[in-house]
TrEMBL record:
It comes from the Eukaryota. It comes from Psophocarpus tetragonolobus (Winged bean). The keyword Signal applies. Keywords: Signal. This is LCR. Residues 1-27 form the signal peptide. The keyword Signal applies.
Length: 77
């Protein structure tokens, strides 16, 4: 009985720790960043130059490529 209780206790601690250290899947904490779409290239120098041009054309100061998971987004600030 005590062995079963300790397993449940350890599982609970593991579950709580995973929830507390998990990172958010989407969104930004910086309100000054706006993503305007996905990049047609992987996040590299070419993507950043293309994204910067798109952002400047839309009236932003600068743009850069940002990877979120497996998606490369063009984000402006």
């Amino acid at each position: 009985m005590a062995f079963r209780i300790s397993h449940l206790f350890l599982f609970g601690i593991l579950l709580v720790s995973l929830v507390l250290i998990a990172e958010p899947a989407a969104g930004f904490s910086d309100p000054g960043i706006k993503c305007i779409g996905t990049c047609s290239f992987p996040c590299d120098k070419k993507c950043t130059q293309d994204c910067n041009s798109r952002c400047v054309a839309k009236g932003f100061k600068s743009g850069y490529c940002l990877t979120q998971g497996s998606v490369s987004n063009c984000c402006c600030s």
